[in-house]
# Entry
Amino acid sequence: MPAFAPAQTVKVQGRTIAYSEETPADPQGTVLFLPGLGGTRLTWRSQLPVFGRRYRALSLDHRDTGGSDPAPDDYTTADQADDAAALLRALDAAPAHVVGLSMGGFVALNLAVRHPELLRSLTLVATSAGGQTHVKPNPAGREALRPDFSLSAGERALHSTRLITAPGWMDANPRLHAGIAAGADEHPFAPEVYARQFRSTSTHDVTGDLSRLDLPTLVIHGDADPLVRYENGEHLARSIPGAQFITYAGTGHLPPLEQYEQFNRDVLTFVDAH
# Structure
């Protein structure tokens, strides 16, 4: 995989947010990538260098994670959406095409609801509207939500990746294991940080807002997702006016990793069209 851009920082709302950026000489626009629960900006190591050939491509560390400031008090996905909005404003990067994975999709949805003027399009990957419509994980997905902190960060990442990707995917892709582990080891999560971020997802519910979203939207979901089940993607695609829906057959919770070449083509095609 291409080398990943080093971290930069910006001060927003009194806290430091870390991000990586790849930008060509004449960018066609901005794409902001939002990582999921337990992830950092390095989640997008297969996307940033590719999108950065044509777009100003940004990926951030949510508050309390990676190179961003700690956040000892509880917060919500709406708070994290406000952080993303402040980052886009501080970097003069709006309106942006926003791509969110899993919890990052929760944040992206809140960003679209709370700050619609900052978005040019919305791509929702393996995510959910939350609330009463949310279809809960299967046993493997539930196990992935309870990380074993007696393991190293890299070992935990490999174990959780095995649980949430399609059966057999890890065994078929051993060349990616070192990168998965190294990304986690670079920015390990302490148990209390993981717990705060997990709690931030508990109040996520934009179900009542979906019909009012008025921007180009792409929903991508693997039909073998054990964590945020496929039915959640179906609900989003049905409920957001004009949404496009792409199903990845035999794919688990991590389409940007499991199907990164196809994922990049699909999202670039969508972004280019808008």
Q: What stands out?
A: The CA atoms of residues 9 and 195 lie 24 Å apart. The first strand starts at residue 8 and ends at 12. The radius of gyration is 17 Å. Residues 8-273 form a domain with the Rossmann fold fold (CATH 3.40.50.1820).
